[in-house]
């Protein structure tokens, strides 16, 4: 199976909130073709949607190394850093 197909399957499962299955397909896609940048975009989105900002940023930085001219990586990294900073500056409330 091609990395594109595995990535699409990962995105399908991510959209249905099956995080474990999405991660599994993204991982297989990266092993199949580590140069397929769309997998880095989608894996980073999965991390970001879970609030795992450091993992999302690292994933997008890896993808940006593959294609420095793809502005989606820089935009997502910038937005993730902004959201991470917001969360760090918000007081934690425990009820």
Average pLDDT level = 93
Task: Please report the first level of CATH classification, the CATH class.
Answer: Mainly Alpha
**What is the gyration radius calculated from CA atoms?**
14 Å
The major pleated sheet works out as: none
The SS-based structural class is mainly alpha
Give the tally of β-strands.
0
The coarse silhouette is flat
Number of domains: 1
Low-confidence stretches are none
Provide an overview of this structure.
The chain has a single domain (3-88), classed as Serine Threonine Protein Phosphatase 5, Tetratricopeptide repeat (Alpha Horseshoe). The chain has 95 residues and is mainly alpha-helical. 77% of the residues lie in helices and 0% in strands.
Summarize the topology.
Elements: H1 3-15, H2 19-32, H3 37-49, H4 53-66, H5 71-89
Helix pairs in contact: 1-2, 1-3, 2-3, 3-4, 4-5
Descriptive labels:
Serine Threonine Protein Phosphatase 5, Tetratricopeptide repeat; mainly alpha; flat; 95 residues; single chain
Structure summarized in a few sentences:
With 95 residues, the chain is mainly alpha-helical.
């Amino acid at each position: 199976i091609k990395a594109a197909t595995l990535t699409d399957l990962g995105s399908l499962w991510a959209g249905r909130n099956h995080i474990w299955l999405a991660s599994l397909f993204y991982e297989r896609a990266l092993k199949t073709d580590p140069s397929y940048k769309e997998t880095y975009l989608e894996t980073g989105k999965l991390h970001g949607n879970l609030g795992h900002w450091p993992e999302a940023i690292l994933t997008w930085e890896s993808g940006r190394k593959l294609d420095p001219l793809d502005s989606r990586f820089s935009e997502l990294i910038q937005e993730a850093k902004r959201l991470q900073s917001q969360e760090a500056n918000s007081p934690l409330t425990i009820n």
